[in-house]
Amino acid sequence: MFAEISRETRETKIKLALECASKNPGLCGGSGVGFFDHMLNTFAVHGCFSINLEMGGDLHVDCHHSVEDVGIVLGMAFREIIDARGNIMRFASVHVPMDESLAFCSVDIGGRAYLIFNADFRAAQIGEYDTQMTREFFFALAHNIRANIHVNLLYGENDHHKTEAIYKATARAISQALESSNNIMSAK
3-class secondary structure for 23-77? Predict the structure, then answer.
């Protein structure tokens, strides 16, 4: 299961290759935003995804366009794989702890985009990464993969740990929902 997407705007230029169920999961390349690249690598490893990312962005402004546009392109790559694959499990729910934090993610990769995101952060930034971009990344991902993604941070103190638990839980839920199924998971 492989897809490659390129996208160029006035703010970013992105080429992303995605392989699901990879024997060598992780991130190759990066966005130029250190903490975000750490989260993308975490997402890739915990979802068993291989993500190769080449990009340039308007980081002299801030990280907004870079983070959001990676979410758009990653969602597009997942959608391409889903459309080519056929029957998938479609639904999955996962809890992931990260030290004192606990995140829950439930997904329905059924072709309808929606994001519920219940998480608060204490700090405005983690390194060069704006904490409010966590929601923006998952909003872009949900709308381009065309999935319902419900993220709930149940508790936590440290913003790094909270964010990492969210990325891990979402990656694991998406990975499980993408597993092959012999049944068409729809009553329509």
Answer: CCCEEEECCCCHHHHHHHHHHHHHHCCEEEEEEEECCCCCCHHHHHHHHHHHHHH
How far, CA to CA in Å, does 98 sit from each of 38, 64, 153, 168? 15, 25, 11, 9
- pLDDT single digits (tens) 20-59: 999 999 999 999 999 999 999 999 999 999 999 999 999 9
Residue showing tokens 């929601």: 135
Q: Give the Cβ contact number of residue 184 at 10 Å.
A: 11
Q: What pTM was computed for the model? A: 0.95
Q: Residue 162 corresponds to which amino acid?
A: K
Could you tell me if 114 and 138 are in contact, meaning their C-beta atoms sit under 8 angstroms apart?
A: no
What count of other Cβ atoms lies within 10 Å of the Cβ of residue 122? 10
Q: Which residues contact 77 (CB under 8 A, 6 or more apart)?
A: 3, 4, 5, 16, 17, 18
Give domain limits for the chain: 2-177
One-letter amino acid of 88: I
Determine the Cα–Cα distance for residues 134 and 132; give it in Å rounded to an integer.
Answer: 5
CA dist 57 to 40, 78, 149, Å? Answer: 16, 22, 26
Residue 26 tokens read as 């992780």
The class level of CATH for 2-177 reads alpha beta
